[in-house]
């Protein structure tokens, strides 16, 4: 359904990765870090997550624009922290998917980052530190959801941080607040999983066994 989420690496991408590895060696970065295991944290019932109800989404993309307005980094024209995809169906019959970083339980981005630019908070939010980032792009290739994106302006990676500063102040993530149909909500993953009909993936998306994404999708029939 959503072919843009084909997680296979093309020959061109593989060649790019080879260039990046060579560059990393030139910088003296330890490639052994690429194969290290993620430091999985037992977050119990605290892991925060998004819930996307495909039945309610009308494809207005207000979540996209709200994300851009609320976050300076997301205003870079080259990147989109939140994206609304569609399957090209007729008006009123299309299937939409609003997606950003899934703040996975086993985040591949964190696993492969050679400069520890990624951290996972106690609430499960995966945060990227642009000051540490060297723009090697390992995380971009590792993430099956293509959440980390390279800014051509800063030459560093950037991605959704779940509006953690807003949440710390008792506010909702900007994308959630902007959704007029309440198709996009958030909360503790343990609670969201109780939503009737909720699943962790859709046809065309990567297997959730790869990174254990922290999201719940209610598919449109």
From TrEMBL:
Residues 48-77, 124-153 form the 4Fe-4S ferredoxin-type domain. It holds the Pfam family Fer4_11. GO terms for molecular function: 4 iron, 4 sulfur cluster binding; metal ion binding. Keywords: 4Fe-4S, Electron transport, Iron, Iron-sulfur, Metal-binding, Repeat, Transport. This is Putative oxidoreductase iron-sulfur subunit.
